[in-house]
């Protein structure tokens, strides 16, 4: 009798620490430049953009996709332009605040319509695409685990960023932007992974079940398991 191989952790499947760390460096550079230059938004913006450019060049030289680097740089430039336009240093973080509002709403909506985004992401990463939806147990587990991302990551960020932005706490925003990047992502991945596997029946073979036992004649599930 052969033993079943251990299930992969969600962290092993998703990874992504480098991107989260990189995203927190330009905001920290903005705050540092803003403070050193006597709360000059122009200097803070210049330092943030300069650091983002250097980081982008480094990543491209290391073999990262130029498209991802350009998108990251564009986000930093847009944040800097907003702060320069409004004259409020805290507005450098406005895009980040709004993007987390949008993410929380999008992830919640995906669960409601039975297309939980955690399942979509994991399915793409492991080459399963959307075939995981044929398994009612997986669909239900992904739905439950996706709520962790809605509340623990995106909603928490909205509350923290929103309160600090409203009160004009620029330095605290820079610190929060760092703390709520990779550390929070790591916690979210760990907790959602635990919820995901706890929601699966003990005898369930795991996330890659359809790779071994896929039945092309399977139809979409009629509904979620009861919670």
TrEMBL record:
<feature type="transmembrane region" description="Helical">
    <location>
        <begin position="68"/>
        <end position="85"/>
    </location>
</feature>
<feature type="region of interest" description="Disordered">
    <location>
        <begin position="208"/>
        <end position="227"/>
    </location>
</feature>
<protein>
    <recommendedName>
        <fullName>DUF3159 domain-containing protein</fullName>
    </recommendedName>
</protein>
<keyword id="KW-0472">Membrane</keyword>
<keyword id="KW-1133">Transmembrane helix</keyword>
<dbReference type="InterPro" id="IPR016566">
    <property type="entry name" value="UCP010219"/>
</dbReference>
<dbReference type="Pfam" id="PF11361">
    <property type="entry name" value="DUF3159"/>
</dbReference>
<keyword id="KW-0812">Transmembrane</keyword>
<feature type="transmembrane region" description="Helical">
    <location>
        <begin position="43"/>
        <end position="61"/>
    </location>
</feature>
<feature type="transmembrane region" description="Helical">
    <location>
        <begin position="179"/>
        <end position="200"/>
    </location>
</feature>
<feature type="transmembrane region" description="Helical">
    <location>
        <begin position="105"/>
        <end position="126"/>
    </location>
</feature>
<feature type="transmembrane region" description="Helical">
    <location>
        <begin position="147"/>
        <end position="167"/>
    </location>
</feature>
